[in-house]
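Example record for the data management plan.
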Amino acid sequence: MKVLIFTALISLSLVGCTDQKSETSDAAKEVNFTELSFTDQHALLVSNLEASKAGLAAKGEYTCCVMPTCNWCLIYDKHCGCAPHLQEGKGVCGACGQSWAMGRGILPGINAEDVKWGPGAVHEEHHEDNNKD
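Corresponding structural encoding:
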């Protein structure tokens, strides 16, 4: 239920951020990233990560199981399906696994010690499919 609420909130925030996202993208095209200070590079990276996750969540393609949401799946899998995988008894990415161990899981009825994660538990079928291009 928390995942659905989170996805709905992200979707609603996306409506207000759509113009901002395109402005950020246009501004990013005009700026040489390597000439920015580290602080500005970091801010731009975080802004773009969050905008990407919001856009994917609005399309139902980013359903993370922790809060704050992970970045691993976005960067390496181009989407996040950790919440449904966890609900199906499958493994989650390492970032989500660590977050569960730290008490940041958001799915009711799931105990952190039951969360499968690590090299033998990751959702490899999605990782392989998304690295073809």
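Summary line stored alongside the record: The chain is about 60% helix and 0% strand.
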